[in-house]
Amino acid sequence: MNHLETLIIRDCFAASTVILPYFTTAPLLRELRYTTHLQECLPPDSLRTFIARSLCSLRLLELETRKLTPTCVNFTVHPLLTHTPMLTTLIIHYIGDYGSWSAVAEYIAILLNPLEQPLHRFLHHSPQGPFKNSILLPHLQHLELLSTAKYQSIPTVLEMLSRRWTVGSPANIESNSSSLSAATTCNFTKLLSAKIPEQYGGDVMQFLGNAMREGMKVEFSLWFLE
Predict the structure, then answer these.
(1) How many angstroms separate the CA atoms of 200 and 188, rounded?
(2) What is the C-alpha separation between 4 and 131, in angstroms, rounded?
């Protein structure tokens, strides 16, 4: 595992809950893709502990699930993200009918909004240690939030995307930067691109018109039909 750079887990609950805890570390891991079509809360805590003990500088994280609720985000997704401060690409796909995707998307938007600090005001638990009061995913440049659920556009999501562009700084990731120092900095990288459902098309110019004219890339997707 010392030379592992990419880890893909698809529909294998045993791999993440039984096998993964026995792996030691993967310090060179840069890409993690986890997909499950099972009715399990995503992601399992074993992923978080694996990333935490690996002390790796993960750059891409993809999570795809049939079950995602605000509780899942609070107790599984958010703790995992606090251990991936060097992440540049985050992909979240919701492919089921369980729970309310609009509530989940709004929750994720609050977590990623750099001006909604400190984070613990919006959580049922308080971040501890070096991640307390820090900006979540300070190096995030590419964000993909897609769902099969049909819903109207969510202003909280569009506002978060706008703030990530307007307040952020140009990308400047040092390859040898430690994850700890990256997580505790007050600066964060400008979000360069976003992929969101086509339902947002009618409202996107109100929130992201200036950002798009300045160079931000926004892609609309009918992902569930692709």
Answers:
(1) 25
(2) 26
Contact assessment for residue 179 and residue 86, using Cβ atoms and an 8 Å cutoff: yes
- Report how far residue 163's alpha carbon sits from residue 214's, in angstroms, rounded to the nearest whole number: 14
Q: Taking the C-alpha atoms of 223, 82, 4 and 177 in order, what is their torsion angle to the nearest 10 degrees?
A: 120
The type of residue at 211 is A
Give the Cα separation of 5 and 11 in Å (integer). Answer: 20
Identify the three-state secondary structure at position 91.
Answer: strand
Residues 127/176, Cβ–Cβ less than 8 Å? no
What tokens appear for 150 in the block?
């049909």
pLDDT digits (tens, 9 = 90+) for 49-102: 889 989 899 999 999 988 888 888 888 899 999 999 999 999 999 886 645 788
